Each structure stands twice: as C-alpha cells, then as structure tokens.
Task: inverse folding
C-alpha cells in the first residue's frame, strides 16, 4: 500500500526532518521566545499556524508550556523547579521529561500564577485545550495518507522528538554538561554542535543569561537556527524582535570611569565578568602554576573552574579546596576577592548612578593599587566602555 507521496528511502528521512523541524520552530519561536518570554511579536498568521501545528504534533497547551517554563526560570535549581536535573537527577529529566511536564501542567496554581497573557480565545478554549489528543490523531491520519504504512513510523518519531530533545535533552543535559559563556546563578550550559536539530535551544546558558532576548547566540561561531528563521520572518514582515543580547561598545580614547561607564558595564555586566575571568583570573592562575612547578601544581589544576564559577554553584568540597588554594596563593586571593567585589556592585540595584559610580571608581583605584598587572590592564579596559547607541 502506497501513500500519496512516493518517495525514496532518503526522501522519507528528509520529510521526517522537515516535519520535526517545523515542530521545533513552533516550540522555540512561538512557545518559548514569543509566548513565554515576550522576546518578539509574530504576525497572527504565524501564531495561528504554530498553534495548530503544535496541537497536531505535541498536544501541548500554550498556557501550560509558557507557565511551566516561566516557573522554571523563577525557581531554577530549587525544589520548586519543575525539571531541574540538579534536584531531580539527570536520568529522571532526560528520560521522563515529558512526564514531569504533564505532572506540572495539572498544577492549577502554576497555570494561574505563571500563565498570564497567553492566548485565551475560542479556539484555545474549545479546540486546542479541550481536545488536546485529537490533533495527534489528525496528524497520524495525515501521515498515513501522505506516506503510507511508513507514515506510522514518521508519526512515532514526530511524537518522540519534542519529549526527548526539548523536555529531556535541553531541560536535562543543558543544565548538567557543556560550556558556559556566562556565570549566572544556575547550572545552565551551552551544548554544540546540534543546533540544527533543536533550533538553537542548546544555547541554554546564553538564554538563561539574557532570558528576554529573541536571539540565543552570542559568539560568532554559535548557530541559532531559530534566530535565522526569525530574521526570515522579520524580512517578510511576519515577526518583530523586541530584544537581543547587548553588544559591548568600546572607545579606546576614553580614559576615565564616568557615569557612561557605569551604564555601559551594568548593561554588559555578564560580558564584563567573563572578560575579568579571561583577562585577570586566568593569567594570574597561569603565573602561579608556572611558579609552583610540577611539585606544587597539583592543587592548582582544579583551580580554574573554582575561581570563575558562580559562588552559589560551588559545593562544600569545592569551597574547602578554594579556601585552601586562596590561603596559599595571595595573588589568586586578591583577584578572586576583587571579582566578588565587582559582582557586588551589580547587586546594588537600589543605588543611584552617582553612588554606583563612586563604588566603581573606588574599586578601580584599589585594583590599580594592588600592583597586579592584569588588574591594572582590566581597569583601563573598563574605562573604555560606552553605552550602546539605540
């Protein structure tokens, strides 16, 4: 028995990839960036298409998905986080991520508190939410008609794609393994090079750093397929991004720290701290390892991660190792303490610009007074920051 479409074996593979990628785009562009974070607006045509497609391929409710994801950000890595592998274990989130989603979707308190502002029209109430499984059955029939018996396999892959790659892989592995561009107060990681399969969602550390950004990539070599599609929709007049990650703007001629400096580095504080780790902590660490030689270098081998990691993510054994390390290496102690002090300036959100400027100028004076070359050079680098033009 043949379906309407007579394809070669590789044609069925391509068709499956196209169908699953449309679903991924629905999740990352519509559910995630548009609905959960309000990072962009999409045309009603795009919105209604994705709502229908996600109903037919996942059966998920827009309100439930957005609410659960917003709660994840609000309660990240705590007992209230719906799917933190740090709390529930990696295996549980990876293999049972869809079950965790369904369980949380039944929590009316989560839906009411975090699901505000999502679609609540006649279609949502009387079709998509009321008959969630009907869409899956429609997709099953459509796959069978189009592809014949092999359409049942294609349908099964469609049904498994989001539960594994989104509910399991991103929520699980992207909070457990990978690299970090920014030291935010959660365990989010970036994973490459599988962006084609999950629409840029693997750039999870970038996303947790700039949660309301429509663009997830920040490095030139990071691939965000979802952003590429958004740009295409924008070109067609069907999407309007509201926010993207800030860009560092430097004026080499600027030699003093002023109010503009405060504004610029506050906006770019995560990049500033990443630069501090790269240009201050790591050079000092390399020098200490050189001085220690083979005999004294064993303790310093673990130091890199401990010195740059967000302090709240360092466990008891790591904290003890770090204390011992800093007691034995004064220069590392100095640059580490200056890192914490610089971070503390960002936390003073109630302070006036003048007060923040005074704190930053004081930090710079004391940093220059340490005599540590890397710190002096970093202060000069900070002075060059200027606000990004609108």
Result:
């Amino acid at each position: 028995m043949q379906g309407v479409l007579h394809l070669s074996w590789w044609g069925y593979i391509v068709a499956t990839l196209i169908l699953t990628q449309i679903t991924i785009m629905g999740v990352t562009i519509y559910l995630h960036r548009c609905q959960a974070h309000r990072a962009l607006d999409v045309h009603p045509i795009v919105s209604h298409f994705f709502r229908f497609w996600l109903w037919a391929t996942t059966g998920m409710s827009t309100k439930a998905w957005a609410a659960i994801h917003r709660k994840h950000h609000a309660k990240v890595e705590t007992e209230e986080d719906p799917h933190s592998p740090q709390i529930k274990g990696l295996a549980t989130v990876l293999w049972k991520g869809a079950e965790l989603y369904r369980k949380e979707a039944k929590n009316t308190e989560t839906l009411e508190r975090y699901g505000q502002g999502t679609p609540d029209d006649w279609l949502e109430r009387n079709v998509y939410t009321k008959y969630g499984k009907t869409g899956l059955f429609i997709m099953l029939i459509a796959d069978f008609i189009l592809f014949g018996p092999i359409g049942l396999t294609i349908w099964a892959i469609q049904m498994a794609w989001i539960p594994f790659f989104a509910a399991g892989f991103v929520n699980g592995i992207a909070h457990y393994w990978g690299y970090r561009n920014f030291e935010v107060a959660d365990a989010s990681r970036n994973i490459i090079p599988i962006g084609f399969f999950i629409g840029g969602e693997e750039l999870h550390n970038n996303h947790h750093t700039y949660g309301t950004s429509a663009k997830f990539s920040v490095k030139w070599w990071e691939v965000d397929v979802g952003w590429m599609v958004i740009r295409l929709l924008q070109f067609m007049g069907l999407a309007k991004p509201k926010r993207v990650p800030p860009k560092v703007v430097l004026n080499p001629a600027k030699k003093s720290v002023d109010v503009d400096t405060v504004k610029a580095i506050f906006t770019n504080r995560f990049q500033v701290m990443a630069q501090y780790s790269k240009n201050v902590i790591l050079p000092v660490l390399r020098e200490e390892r050189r001085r220690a030689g083979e005999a004294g270098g064993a303790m310093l081998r673990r130091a890199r991660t401990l010195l740059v990691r967000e302090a709240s993510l360092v466990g008891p054994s790591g904290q003890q190792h770090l204390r011992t390390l800093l007691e034995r290496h004064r220069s590392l102690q100095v640059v580490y303490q200056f890192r914490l002090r610089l971070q503390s300036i960002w936390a003073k959100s109630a302070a006036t610009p003048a007060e923040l400027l005074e704190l930053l100028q004081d930090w710079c004076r004391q940093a220059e007074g340490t005599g540590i070359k890397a710190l002096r050079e970093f202060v000069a680098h900070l002075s060059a920051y200027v606000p990004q033009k609108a």
